[in-house]
Every structure is written in structure tokens, then in C-alpha cells.
Amino acid sequence: MALVEAPILGPVSSVDLSADLGEAPGSEGRHLDRALMAVISTAHVACGGHAGDVESMQLAVEAALENGVALGAHPSYLDREGFGRRRQSIRPEEVVTAVSEQLAALDEIATALGTRVVSVKPHGALYHDLSSDTELADALFDLLATRQGRVVLDAGSVAAARAGSRGLVVVAEGFCDRRYEDSGALASRENTNAILLDPVLAGRQALELARHGLTARSARVDSLCVHSDHPRAPEIAQTVRMTLESAGINVSAP
User: Fold this and answer.
1) Fewer beta carbons under 10 A from the terminal one: N or C of the chain?
2) Residues 89-112: pLDDT tens digits?
């Protein structure tokens, strides 16, 4: 990612720190989720499309409540085999139906436990396809416009701009643990160095994104994401939070 010395933003007092949870299976995955919950300010919970089931959603909601973490949904294409990272050749209305069912599943659990889902972050290929497929984007944004809350999208992306123009409350997201191309796009996961596994480097990138935004796109960053699908995720999240707070930036949900 290209960095600059002069900030494009005013002084930053706070930023959200999020993670996508409920994705790793079994007891190891639940342990990882709980460790992250102690550090982050927002949890986006997989709700059955690419990962997650009723049990994992309930445990995640309970952990979010215990730790005072804002609850978000992480819906995706129905693609468990490909972990939601493969483009799908299906009609927008089919995607909307699938996402609506995923959101309803998490909403039901949240309501039963006395809380609510306050944000929606599409996962994987769906997240990125919203910038290239306007018909899909409009269909999904129409669905999200019926809900109270925020939609989390790639900072400076076509999707973020389109959602904002349609009246949605957009949270612009940057990634602590993913490398960026000079264009501001995320480096492909097919590249061997696409993932930042060094907590210090991830903390440094998080601080740059919070202070300067995504400079290649001249876009602010409201929320910083740490992926949960690798074992060093809690260490990375802890280092990111310490780095931000040492710089005088508070970590809190939007």
C-alpha cells in the first residue's frame, strides 16, 4: 500500500476494530472467536452462507453481549465448499433471498437474547461483486434499506459510493492484515504475500489507514478488519488495538 506523510483527514479520535467471526469450525474456532471478542469493538458473524450454523451464531451473539461488542451479520453467497470466495452465476433475486434468510436466522437469535444486529457486511466474492454488478448491488441495497443499521463496504469502492447514494449508512472498511495494491485494491489471495501475518506490520498498516485513510482512493476508513481464519488473529488484533490506542486513537463501534 502506498503511504504518505501528510494526512488527507483531520485528526482521528476513534476507529472501529472488527473481525469476521463464526467461520472456523469446532472448539478451536470458538476459542479463537472468544479471544477476538475480548479485543474488537464489532463482530460480523457468519450466518450460514459460507460458514456458521445455529450453534455458532448463538455462541457468537452470547460472546458479543458478554464483551460489549456490537453485533453485525456476515452473509454471503451460498457457497460453503468455496468459503464464499467464488463468483456465482445466479440471478440477483436469488442472492437477495439467500441473504435475507441468513439475516433472519441471526436476527432471530439476537432477538431471543435481547439484542439486535446493527450492521451488515457482505462476505468474500459478494462483497467485491457489489462493485462490478450494478443490478446485484441495487437488489441487495434495496433489501438492506428495509433494515435499521449500517452496511460495511470496501473504503473508496464503487459499491460504497453506490450504497451511500441510495441513502444507506455506509461504514468504510480497511484491512489490517491484507496487503494493498498501489491502486487501492486488495492484493489477490493467490499471491503468497497477500496476507500480513506479522502483528507489528498489521498494527502499522492499521495506524496508517486510521490516520490517512486509503490514500490510493482518497477514502476515509471508519472500520479496520482483522480476519479470524488464521491462528495469529487474536495476537494481530491485540497488537493493532495497542498500536492505535498508543497513538491516541480510541477503539469503538461506529
Assistant:
1) C
2) 899 999 999 999 999 999 999 999
Task: CATH number for 14-251: choose from 3.30.390.50, 3.40.50.300, 3.20.20.370, 3.20.20.70.
Answer: 3.20.20.370
* Percent of all residues in the chain with a pLDDT value above 70, rounded to a whole number: 96
pLDDT at 125 over 50: yes
Where are the domains positioned within the chain?
A: 14-251
What pLDDT is recorded for position 25?
75
Rounded to the nearest 10°, the torsion over CA 251, 163, 151, 180 is -60
